[in-house]
């Protein structure tokens, strides 16, 4: 452990910057050994800060070497500046001046992948949140916005493509014969949106004509062997540009929009002004190498980054506590976009499942924080599901409270009022409120209060008056640093059904309708529905109108009715999921007690009906058949018995497979698609149900099913079907329990064949790594250790680390090994990566943060590993997560 530990910074301490930087001129002399960065910063004291003689303090990093500093072109003598803890401090300055800094950096040794680094043979940058300070000394905070001019100097034979933000304004040669390119970005921006790329890249060009008839040049750059995989991203980009004009009235502003794919990247992608940089796994797509879910992900991320041009770049964040201002809003925008492009219900189900599984777990754990956090040690740790996904739910609730039209007016006002500014979540709310007249003062608490509210609903029907009463109570459990909670403004969308499942109109507050938004604002409230003749079945929280845990004691019959008849597609899924959760919860209890497992035949009947209803969207049927995941059931459980959950899921799947095997066989055949691969909602839906049916059919023990899986693996003409066949086989309980998982099993043989076929496609190899690492068998830990020695593995590449260790985390038999060796292995990797790549190391800690909820024997072992990590000399990133987990 270190002598002194890193300290937290607080939102309440925010002060405007003492200095501003009106213009930033950067020159990069790029070279494989050392890169020299020269900055000329046109600075002045900030009038808003008030009269001051405070010294100028610039942010830097331990990897930045200062060569020289000059004030108004006079070199500063050593006594007039000093470097202290990564800061460059200049004692005295005029009110207005030009500061010149020359720094030396070594991008080739940058393993953190923050600042300027190398990926394959190119140079690239990642500056959000505080990466720019690893390039040169700067006021590295988002409320300092500056107009950037960037000169790139490099050897043209190795770096023919040299890119930065904005427009290329000049190209020439230096005296030494190197090439020089100048870029100018007319829009003032914070340093976190700066980007630079240099390399030998191929490009795909296209054009988009905006609503005001301006032609925008679109360019996607990749290494040359990947350029045949960008067509889908290009089309997705054009769809995004059109959609943002239509849905939000937002037009693109520069003359060129560029995207670059890089293989080494900590996150998914980055919205740098005019020059988005993508993890290649979130951009490249081809039918042979990419699965359906990745196609959808590519489209969503291209859209997300593009949408940031307004929600993030034109209007940015005042400070990093406001991160959700841009991320929550932009996730909401990309979710709506995807819903418009495909099936809105399927998209909503996927987003909500993810939220309820992963964000709810975060909100119930030691890292729980409000959507607008009030303190942090390392901001990189706050790119969380809470800030992104719960943040998007908050914006969605505003949309529900205001209605589509007023929401659009609020968004227009927000962009109009704050264009070119760095603002806060309060500013966003104020615009929404001012444009709509809707009072959001209580609603605001959603931003500052952590934890998932529980809403408990009970009901009563008064026969005589035809009145139905819903009583709702809300409660939010304590979270770290927030012991007491206030009631939130929760919009609860409700409809009522009669016994046959028909929608009932009822009157609430004088308004008759078959769908009402109730405003739960007190800790307990009663809502009255009048004009009814018999007791209704309530359809509660339609569309998941608020990110809460809803409790209502539904009978199995109610759930079956909702599942088949509710007009709200989301709640049909939700009812089906609740039925399965109820069944699995009792199976898990039986498994914990060591009893023989058994299920209710009613459930089998429900699934049979589902499989025989041709009117249903095949994608929805597949989502229901997927059964609640191991992770979701873990979120619901307390304490968590991982092996019991696994056993319960496997048992239920096997039972359904056995009872309905002929239905699954039929459904498999019915949903085969003729013709070439297309990533359309319809085709994706058919493939998902077909492959889901195949996985059940195989579980029934049928020889023919086994043959069918192998044939599909061998003859598929697209990665979705091939990889589905492979994973179905590798994950199959029945097949592997017979074959026992030895090196010589058929599963191992298929995995080997797959690697053989795809070894030259890194993104496919990543899928192979993930599947191999997630296997359920007694060798799981040994397997993952072997994988880390495999030539395809590379500790420097975040995608590979995520594949192997992320995959391993899903293997109950590997990760949760009874002797704790799985936890020990993960802790070893975290310690190994701690200094090399703190962001990745910190993210790997997530599964360990759940230790308090685990069954006692495992909990103690997991805790011991956290303690072992804490004893190391830690990066801020890992220190924050581990110390908070143990607190
Ligand atoms: N701002 C990026 C996005 O959400 C995410 C990101 C954060 C990327 C930090 C890199 C580093 O679109
Ligand atoms: Zn984003």
Automatic annotation (TrEMBL):
Occurrences of domain Peptidase M1 membrane alanine aminopeptidase (ranges): 232-446
Gene3D superfamilies for the chain: 2.60.40.1840, 3.30.2010.30, Neutral Protease Domain 2, Peptidase M1, alanyl aminopeptidase, C-terminal domain, tricorn interacting facor f3 domain
Pfam families: DUF3458, DUF3458_C, Peptidase_M1, Peptidase_M1_N
Biological process terms in GO annotation: proteolysis
Catalyzed chemical reaction(s): Release of an N-terminal amino acid, Xaa-|-Yaa- from a peptide, amide or arylamide. Xaa is preferably Ala, but may be most amino acids including Pro (slow action). When a terminal hydrophobic residue is followed by a prolyl residue, the two may be released as an intact Xaa-Pro dipeptide
Residues covered by the Peptidase M1 alanyl aminopeptidase C-terminal domain: 557-887
Cofactor field: Zn(2+)
UniProt cross-references to InterPro entries, sorted A to Z: Aminopeptidase_N-like_N (IPR045357), Aminopeptidase_N-like_N_sf (IPR042097), PepN_Ig-like_sf (IPR038438), Peptidase_M1 (IPR001930), Peptidase_M1_dom (IPR014782), Peptidase_M1_pepN (IPR012779), Peptidase_M1_pepN_C (IPR024601), Peptidase_M1_pepN_C_sf (IPR037144)
Highest taxon listed in the record's lineage: Bacteria
The enzyme's E.C. designation: 3.4.11.2
UniProt keyword terms in alphabetical order: Aminopeptidase, Hydrolase, Metal-binding, Metalloprotease, Protease, Zinc
Protein family membership: Belongs to the peptidase M1 family.
Function summary: Aminopeptidase N is involved in the degradation of intracellular peptides generated by protein breakdown during normal growth as well as in response to nutrient starvation.
UniProt-recorded name of the protein: Aminopeptidase N
Organism: Marinomonas profundi
């Amino acid at each position: 452990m270190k002598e002194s530990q890193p300290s937290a910074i607080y939102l309440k301490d925010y002060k405007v910057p003492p200095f501003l930087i009106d213009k930033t001129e950067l020159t990069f002399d790029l070279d494989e050994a050392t890169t020299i960065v020269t900055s000329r910063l046109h600075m002045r004291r900030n009038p808003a800060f008030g009269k001051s003689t405070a010294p100028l303090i610039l942010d830097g990093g331990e990897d930045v070497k200062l060569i020289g500093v000059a004030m108004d072109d006079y070199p500063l003598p050593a006594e007039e500046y000093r470097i202290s803890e990564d800061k460059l401090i200049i004692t005295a300055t005029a009110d207005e001046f030009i500061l010149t800094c020359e720094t030396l950096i070594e991008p080739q040794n940058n393993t953190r992948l923050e600042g300027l680094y190398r990926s394959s043979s190119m140079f690239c940058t990642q500056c959000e949140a505080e990466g720019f300070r690893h390039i040169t000394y700067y006021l590295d905070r988002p409320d300092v916005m500056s107009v950037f001019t960037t000169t790139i100097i490099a050897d043209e034979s190795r770096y023919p493509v040299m890119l930065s933000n904005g427009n290329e304004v000049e190209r020439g040669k230096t005296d030494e014969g190197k090439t020089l390119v100048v870029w100018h970005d007319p829009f003032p921006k914070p340093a976190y949106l700066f980007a630079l790329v240099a390399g030998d890249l191929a490009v795909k060009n296209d054009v988009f004509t905006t609503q005001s008839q301006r032609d925008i040049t679109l360019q996607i750059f990749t290494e040359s062997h990947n350029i045949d995989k960008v067509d889908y991203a290009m089309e997705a980009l054009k769809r995004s540009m059109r959609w943002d004009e239509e849905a939000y009235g937002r037009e693109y502003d520069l003359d060129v929009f560029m995207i670059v794919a890089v293989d080494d990247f900590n996150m998914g992608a980055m919205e740098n002004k005019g020059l988005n940089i993508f993890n290649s796994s979130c951009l490249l797509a081809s039918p042979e190498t990419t699965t359906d879910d990745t196609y959808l992900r590519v489209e969503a991320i291209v859209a997300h980054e593009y949408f940031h041009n307004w929600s993030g770049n034109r209007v940015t964040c005042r400070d990093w506590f406001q991160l959700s201002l841009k991320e929550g809003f932009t996730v909401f925008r990309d979710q709506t976009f995807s819903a418009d492009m495909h099936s809105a219900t399927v998209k909503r189900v996927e987003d909500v499942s993810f939220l309820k599984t992963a964000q709810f777990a975060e909100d119930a754990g030691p890292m729980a924080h409000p959507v607008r956090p009030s303190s942090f040690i390392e901001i990189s740790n706050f790119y969380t599901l809470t800030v992104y996904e719960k943040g998007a739910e908050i914006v969605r609730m505003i949309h529900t409270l205001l209605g589509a039209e007023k929401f659009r007016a609020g968004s227009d006002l927000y962009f109009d009022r704050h264009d070119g500014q760095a603002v806060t979540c309060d500013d966003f709310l104020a615009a929404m409120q001012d444009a709509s007249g809707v009072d959001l003062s209580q609603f605001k608490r959603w931003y500052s209060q952590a934890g998932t509210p529980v809403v408990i609903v009970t009901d009563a029907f008064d026969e005589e008056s035809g009145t139905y009463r819903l009583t709702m109570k809300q409660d939010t459990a304590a979270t770290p640093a927030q012991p007491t909670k206030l009631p939130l403004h929760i919009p609860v969308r409700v409809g009522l059904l009669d016994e046959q499942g028909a929608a009932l109109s009822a009157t609430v507050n004088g308004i008759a309708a078959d769908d009402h938004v109730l405003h739960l604002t007190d800790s307990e409230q009663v809502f009255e529905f009048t004009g009814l003749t018999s007791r209704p079945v309530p359809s509660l929280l339609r569309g998941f109108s608020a990110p809460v845990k809803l409790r209502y004691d539904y009978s199995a019959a109610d759930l079956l009715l909702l599942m088949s008849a509710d007009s709200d597609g989301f709640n049909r899924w939700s009812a089906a999921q609740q039925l399965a959760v109820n069944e699995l919860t009792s199976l898990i209890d039986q498994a914990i007690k060591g009893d023989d497992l058994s299920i209710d035949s009613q459930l089998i009947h429900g699934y049979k009906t589902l499989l025989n209803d041709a009117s249903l969207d095949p994608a929805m049927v597949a989502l229901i058949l997927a059964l609640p995941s191991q992770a979701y059931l873990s979120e619901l459980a307390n304490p968590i018995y991982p092996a019991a959950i696994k056993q319960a899921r496997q048992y239920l799947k096997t039972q359904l497979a056995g009872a309905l095997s002929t239905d699954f066989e039929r459904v498999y055949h019915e949903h085969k698609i003729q013709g070439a691969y297309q990533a359309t909602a319809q085709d994706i839906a058919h493939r998902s149900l077909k492959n889901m049916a195949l996985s059940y059919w195989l579980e029934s023990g049928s020889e023919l099913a086994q043959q069918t899986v192998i044939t599909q693996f061998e003859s598929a003409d697209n990665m979705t079907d091939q990889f589905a066949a492979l994973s179905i086989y590798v994950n199959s309980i029945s097949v592997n329990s017979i074959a026992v998982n030895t090196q010589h099993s058929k599963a191992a043989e298929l995995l080997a064949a797959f690697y053989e076929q795809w070894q030259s496609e890194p993104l496919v190899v990543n899928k192979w790594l993930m599947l191999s690492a997630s296997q359920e068998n007694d060798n799981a830990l040994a397997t993952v250790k072997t994988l880390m020695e495999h030539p395809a593995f590379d500790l420097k590449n975040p995608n590979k680390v995520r594949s192997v260790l992320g995959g391993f985390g899903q293997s109950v038999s590997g990760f949760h090994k009874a002797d704790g060796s799985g936890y020990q292995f993960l802790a070893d990797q975290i310690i190994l990566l701690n200094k090399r790549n703190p962001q990745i190391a910190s993210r790997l800690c997530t599964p360990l943060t759940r230790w308090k909820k685990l069954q006692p024997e495992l909990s103690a072992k997991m805790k011991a590993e956290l303690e072992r990590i804490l004893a190391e000399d830690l990066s801020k990133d890992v220190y924050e997560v581990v110390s908070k987990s143990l607190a």
